[in-house]
Amino acid sequence: MKEDDSHHPFVIVHRLDGERIHSCLKQNNMLDNDVAPVVLEHQTIAFPLISLQVYEQGREKVVAISSIPLELVFLPPHYMEPTQPHKRLHSMVTEWWNDIPKDTTLGHLESFLELLPRKWERLGDLILFPNGSFSEDIWVKLSNDSQTYLWTTIASALKVKGIGIQSPIADNVLRSSQATILLGDSQVSFLDHGIHYQFDAAKVMFSSGNITERRRIGALNMKGETVVDAYAGIGYYSFPMIINAGAAHVHACEMNPASIEGLLLGAKKNQIEDKITVHQGDNQTTLPLLKGKADRCHLGLLPSSEAVWGACLEALKAEGGWLHVHMNVEEEKIGRWKKSTLERFKSLNDELNLGFSIRGDHLERVKWYAPFVRHVVFDIECRPKKS
């Protein structure tokens, strides 16, 4: 059966693989968010595709990333209610189109709607669209008044006060955000699974995609522990470790003034100011001051935190503790990376004469960072060697 007006392309996968395939399809802009998934027999689920052409262009990439074969079928679509944000966006932008003075160079409405972003990240009352959004020539042809009216229309459709565009992280030691704000204020404040965050989105990055790891780290038992967060940022992991995991105190190392401002605002909002000590500056300078103070060290820098592995080992108390090491690793090299990482920590342990026995406990695959590259977290336990 071919694609027609009454049937829609879907891919069928086992429900156990559903989360992985859904993430891959979404990441590669193949998932049709206006059509509902279909639960089928034999523990399978069908995900709707934007089009057959898009599927054929991106199928090999998704299969390579997920390592799961895909079965294509055509089913009658069940379209989401008009309250869905994509529907609302298209509907209100259509009204905007009908209101503005027409310029023949703008082309047709249908082509214009196709250029609207299909995904975004919401941070409180601000939505950030992906890097490259609104970059086509057609946006430049709009008058300033029409542009302002459009940004206001988009914000209203998505029920926020401000919108902006993500940019690549700045190539500097602070790894600053370079988001461009099109409408509204870059200062955001929002509640994320019971935890308050406040920061300037034009200066600081926030990755909503790391929610699974923030939940996991918050579910660990850290009751009464002293934790060193080597790359604290605005409290992405410091806050869950205190509020959910029960850590008694976090030493938060951070060098970006904008991140520290957000960290302090969030700590006050969460009423945990007395449980966080901020160490401002390069952590290669501040971490040595924390020697022997920690039950646990969190090393949350991507692509690698290797520059401070030795300092974090030394930060552990004499009775040892835990290290949570974040890294970007090619999927096929994860096994080798685990082995080499443990060997490196054992070598550092011997060089520093710390006397720990070091073992790898768990590796968490957080998300796909790029095609074939995983963001992973390796939990490593360090304890005194038995005599």
What's this, in brief?
This protein is α/β, with parallel strands linked by helices and 387 residues long. It is globular.
Describe the structure in your own words:
- The relative contact order is 0.08.
- α3 (85-99) packs antiparallel against α6.
- This protein is an alpha/beta fold.
- The protein contains twelve helices and 17 strands.
- β5 (121-123) and β6 (126-129) form a beta hairpin.
- It is globular and about 75 Å long.
- The strands form four sheets. Strands 13-12-11-14-15-17-16 form a seven-stranded mixed beta sheet, with helices on both faces. A four-stranded antiparallel beta sheet has the order 2-3-1-4. A four-stranded mixed beta sheet has the order 5-6-7-8.
- It folds into three domains: 8-75, Alpha-Beta Plaits, CATH 3.30.70.2580; 85-183, GMP Synthetase, Chain A, domain 3; 210-384, Rossmann fold, CATH 3.40.50.
- It is 31% helix and 26% strand.
What secondary-structure arrangement, pairings included, does this model have?
Blueprint: E1 8-14, H1 18-27, E2 38-39, E3 44-48, H2 52-66, E4 71-75, H3 85-99, H4 109-114, E5 121-123, E6 126-129, H5 137-140, H6 144-157, E7 162-165, E8 180-183, E9 187-192, E10 195-200, H7 211-219, E11 226-229, H8 238-243, E12 249-254, H9 257-269, E13 276-280, H10 283-286, E14 296-299, H11 309-315, E15 321-330, H12 334-351, E16 356-370, E17 373-384
Parallel strand pairs: 6-7, 11-12, 11-14, 12-13, 14-15
Antiparallel strand pairs: 1-3, 1-4, 2-3, 5-6, 7-8, 9-10, 15-17, 16-17
Helix pairs in contact: 3-6
